[in-house]
Target: SufE family protein
Amino acid sequence: MKTLKERQDELVEEFSMFDDWLDKYEYLIDLGKNLEPFPEELKTDDRLIKGCQSRVWLDAEAKDGVIVFRADSDAIITKGIISMLISVYSGRGAAEIAEDDFSFVDRLGLKENLSPTRANGLVSMLETIRTIAQNNR
Model:
């Protein structure tokens, strides 16, 4: 498995292949299509990420020293965003996640190119992932 920094750098490189933000949005949508199916019984209020305009469910299971995330959203770009975050953080140790500065998101330029409500949702997703990690240290 790649280190956290290697995976983040890889994602930044993948995004940099696209010059146009419409192409980057398409890439996000494709990431969302590759998300594992999320069981309907896990779509509960306690798994909803607060602060997102769309509905985003995040499930986390800590086992064998790592946190495994699963997620879903009812909006295609948001589903791509949470899929991207899961591809970076799922399967990593709680301390490693909690200590990350999430700066790769800034290097992607994502916040500046999302609507304000989606950008707020992205921040809420990152805060939720960090909180889960801190609670499982």
